[in-house]
Amino acid sequence: MKMNRDMLTKGFPKDFLWGGATAANQFEGGWNEGGKGISTTDMCLAGSRTIPKRLAKEIKEGVYYPSHNGIDFYHRYKEDIALFAEMGFKSFRMSIAWTRIYPTGEESEPNEEGLKFYDDVFDELQKYGIEPIVTISHYEYPYHLVEKFSCWKSREMIDYYMKFTETIFRRYKNKVKYWLTLNEINTVALATSGYIGAGILNGDEDEVMDMKVDPETLYQALHYMLVASAKAVTLGHEINPDFKIGSMEAYLTYYPYNCNPDDVLLAQKKDREVNLIAGDVQIRGSYPGFAYRFFEEKGYDIKMEEEDFEILKKGTVDFISISYYFSATMSTQEGLGEASGNMIVEGNVNPYLETSEWGWQSDPKGLRWTLNHIWDRYQIPIMVVENGLGATDKLEADGSVHDDYRIKYIRDHVIQMKEAIRDGVNLIAYTPWGCIDLISGSTGEMDKRYGFIYVDLDNQGNGSFDRYKKDSFYWYKKVIASNGEDLD
Predict the structure, then answer these.
(1) CATH code at 57?
(2) Which of the 8 DSSP states describes residue 481?
(3) Measured between alpha carbons, how far is 417 from 411 in angstroms, rounded to an integer?
(4) Is a pLDDT exceeding 90 seen at residue 11?
(5) How many structural domains is the chain composed of?
């Protein structure tokens, strides 16, 4: 059969969901207003590139906690959403603060004032025709549950998560269509993500945020989260069959450092352990064979109930969403230099890539490779819900911010997304991370900015909180208006 030229997709689909992404714990603020309880992030002190972010075991007077004010979206959401609308957003990825709905996690009834706040946010988005993409839980849990049983270390957490999830599903069933179950769920299995990703404490004193948690505990936590995610998918479809519920993974793309077969196998092994275990469970509905071999060889005794297998099989997601910022290489050789830009990533530097001031290696073509890799394996729609460049921006005297480096980063990735679509990938959304400047999740600082909108706030919480449009604001507006065609 001769190929019809119409079979070749030439660009972004007309209903493509251009937008931006945030998380409640990094930009919302209002940490103790409207009946909100204390979350895991509310206990974190500020850090920087050289000073690790730390976890406090109690709120102390005279100490700066970045999430307490965030960038004050709680009070300025109408102003911010109007700016998103001015850029032409079709979608806005956000999360719901668990402790705004259930302050300790244990309440029998939800906090109405918290529910009403999100009603107002969704109504404001609807006014401008912006589709919310809502992460149910984004690196934020009730701190009370941390103290009680270290959150996802315990199977009890599934029931607390389901109570929270059912509440927001039912409340917003006519306002939200797209849901993500748990943010970057696969990173929970990485040794430095125990507290951030799973709310697991390790030690009695105040801890550096990248504290180590033993891998067996983390893979056990991952299993509980996968079960909870599957139960959420099933429940959501019962409440509203029109819901589209997706997984969310930090896709950590690994290349072999060279063509040494040992390097090739190591890169494949890392991809499987970090990305594909969670992906296969959430999309295919069961653990892959290599997961059981991995658990056996490591000596991990992952407790799985008989009912879990049916829950996982029944609760597969409708689409996959990913964060993608960079790639890393894997090698059996020593002394190649570590990819040290992000505390959750292992690997070596790639000599063919440029490195940002925070040590992240930009790899736009790696995004095309990753999208094809995911599509070839799963054949379900894909969203890129995080991508962007953290950089130091300068606010000029006239209120302008010249961030051509950010424009280049986003442009290069948009080009490669378009190439992936032409390859046949069903990509349906792109929401760059931190579309408005917010608190860095990994370091707790403001200097590491991602946004198209500048927020006047420094690392110590000083500033007017006023918003300013960067050069990238006007550029991204043009990209959206042209559906990804005008990238100049």
Answers:
(1) 3.20.20.80
(2) H
(3) 10
(4) yes
(5) 1
Q: Of the residues 184, 207, 249, 445, which is catalytic?
A: 184
Of these residues, 140, 273, 386, 445, which one is catalytic? 386
- What does residue 87 show for φ and ψ, rounded to 5 degrees? -75, -15
The mean pLDDT value for 27-41 works out to 97
DSSP string, 191-203: TT-HHHHH----S
For 393-445, how does the pLDDT look when each residue is reduced to its tens digit (9 = 90+)?
Answer: 999 999 999 999 999 999 999 999 999 999 999 999 999 999 999 999 878 89
For CA atoms 404, 249, 27, 480, give the dihedral sign. Answer: positive
pLDDT band for position 205 (50/70/90)? very low
Is residue 294, in this structure, part of any structural domain at all? yes
The answer to whether residues 278 and 207 touch, using CB atoms and an 8 Å cutoff, is no
The answer as to whether 487 is a domain residue is no
Query: What's the full length of the chain, in residues?
Result: 488
pLDDT in tens, 371-383: 999 999 999 999 9
d(CA 200, CA 135): 20
Is residue 346 annotated as part of the catalytic site, yes or no? Answer: no
pLDDT the model gives residue 444: 87
Domain span at residue 432 reads 5-481
- Active site annotation includes 386: yes
CA gap 379, 120 in Å, rounded: 36
Q: Is residue 191 part of a domain?
A: yes
Which residue did the predictor score with more confidence, 310 or 50? 310
> Is residue 260 assigned to a domain?
yes
Alpha-carbon radius of gyration of the chain: 21
